[in-house]
Design a protein that fits this description.
four-stranded antiparallel sheet; 10 helices; globular
């Protein structure tokens, strides 16, 4: 795996709602194999940027390139082909409460593949085992902890073997121990599968534990003011807002790490 190979390239991106520009002139690259962090203060547009990357919201201006394909300039069939390579873990886990974990993970396999029932069952067991939930196939979401629900959501996001996994605040609502276990799982999956991760988070412990590349969105100037490895940004950035963001609660973050 060539970790310096660009996989997502953002060029001159403006995003907003109607005439309101939330962020302007975003330019950054997500390389293959990155754990890429989208970070910034509340209201800076982290989740909006995620929606643009996964095809749910069109930018006001600019390009989102997946390889040589400009996603928002492509026709719907090409967009659908690219989106099939994505897996998405939403903030809540977004599991269907009336379905078992196995049924939740099986859903995309049933919809988008021609696999037999026995093949799907084997694949579901494999994906749940990868996230540490072997033996929990017949449990319902209400019967497991919040951390386990997140891992089950991750198993479903991984069902179609995506090239890129997108996470929206994966640690939200988790206690520090469960959050650290999820971080460890992300690192293990990147090492074993070579998957690229794009993660929206404001949690410092997670940013430093898993991130090797990032972009910082500044809510006041309405543009990005830093990009790169968060640990290098902490050591080298001269931007006071970036430094303040990366050092808030520094002592507790170091304890968790």
């Amino acid at each position: 795996m060539d970790e310096t190979e660009p996989q997502i390239v953002i060029k001159g991106l403006d995003m907003g709602y109607g005439s309101f520009v939330l962020m302007r002139n975003l330019n950054f690259t997500v390389n293959r194999g990155d754990i890429f962090i989208i970070m910034g203060g509340s209201g800076c547009g982290k989740s909006t940027l995620m929606k643009i990357l996964i095809g749910l919201k069109k930018p006001l201006r600019g390009q989102v390139l997946y390889g040589d394909l400009s996603f928002w300039d492509a026709d719907p069939d090409e967009q659908e082909r690219v989106m099939r390579r994505f897996g998405v873990l939403y903030q809540s886990g977004a599991l269907f409460s009336s379905m078992t974990l196995a049924e939740n993970v099986a859903l995309p396999l049933e919809q988008y593949t021609d696999m037999s029932k026995s093949q799907i069952s084997s694949m579901v067991s494999l994906k749940l085992a990868l996230v540490g939930l072997a033996g929990f196939e017949e449990f319902y979401p209400s019967e497991i902890s919040g951390g386990m629900q997140k891992r089950a959501g991750l198993a479903r996001a991984m069902a179609l073997d995506p090239d890129i996994l997108f996470f929206d605040e994966p640690s939200a609502g988790l206690d520090p121990v469960s959050a650290r276990l999820l971080d460890d799982l992300i690192l293990e999956l990147r090492a074993s599968l070579g998957t690229t991760f794009v993660v929206v988070t404001h949690e410092l412990a997670s940013i430093f534990a898993i991130g090797n590349n990032s972009v910082y969105l500044d809510v006041d100037s309405r543009t990005m003011t830093a990009s790169g490895d968060p640990k290098k940004l902490l050591a080298q950035s001269s931007d006071p807002k970036v430094r303040k963001f990366l050092t808030r609660g520094e002592e507790s973050a170091h304890v968790q790490a």
